[in-house]
Amino acid sequence: MRPASGAARLRDRLQEAFLEKVALIDTSGSRTGQVNGLSVTELGGFAFGHPARITCQVRPGSGKVVDIEREVELGGPIHSKGVLILSGFLAGHYALDTPMSLFASLVFEQSYGGVDGDSASSAELYALLSALSEVPLRQDLAVTGSVNQHGDVQAIGGVNEKIEGFFDICQAEGLTGSQGVLIPQANVQHLMLRKDVANACREGSFSIYPISRVSEGIALLTGIAAGDRGAEGAYPLGSLNRRIEDRLRAFANIRRRFDQQGGSAVSRD
Fold first, then answer.
1. What are the beta bridge partners of residue 40?
2. pLDDT category of residue 24 using cuts at 50, 70 and 90
3. What is the pTM of this model?
4. Choice among 133, 162, 215, 239 that is catalytic
5. Distance between CA 36 and CA 25 in Å, rounded?
6. Known catalytic residue: 119?
7. Which of 14-18, 88-92, 188-192 has the highest mean pLDDT?
């Protein structure tokens, strides 16, 4: 479908903002607690995709994951539900014998309009896991997909527009051969990409990675295996999950010492 002039201008202005570093998006390198999410904007019946930087900060606290978009009333209920699911994922996967003792904040950077939908929940989870493990995420990859409390990556809408939106930014900055997009495995059947994107994938200069589990995605983004619990109930040494669990236990110990000393700064989150 040929875009209306207004939609085309908006798309072009967004791309210019990314290329001129007015809107900050990295397509190379790695950063801790930062990931490229993907959004779709619709105007006049024409939809186009574009990346959005998602960041996360963590510290010891009372077990709260704060959705900054919701706090300032820019986040819709479905997006807020997606963020709350992240708390359920953490509670069911790490330090099961220890009270959850972190404070985490998640935000779409440089987003000044409303945010809704849960298609960024897997990207938000990757940013959270990166911040907790202190392991950086690849910035040459972008992510879309919702997630449930068990770590399954679920289908989303607008998959073609989202892939094409990130491809356009990467192509304008120069394809490196390492760039690509993580999508839900369930969305492979919906792929109907533009010819230039399909050709780039065929030639190996851009990649699409179907993901069915969070453990697959985080391993691709970090280069470190997530790790499964062994017979004794512990994650393997050096695995990403072990790093996360150790950090959460450390947070719990910090909070316990605070409580024993009569401190209240941590517990007021």
1. 49
2. confident
3. 0.88
4. 162
5. 7
6. yes
7. 188-192
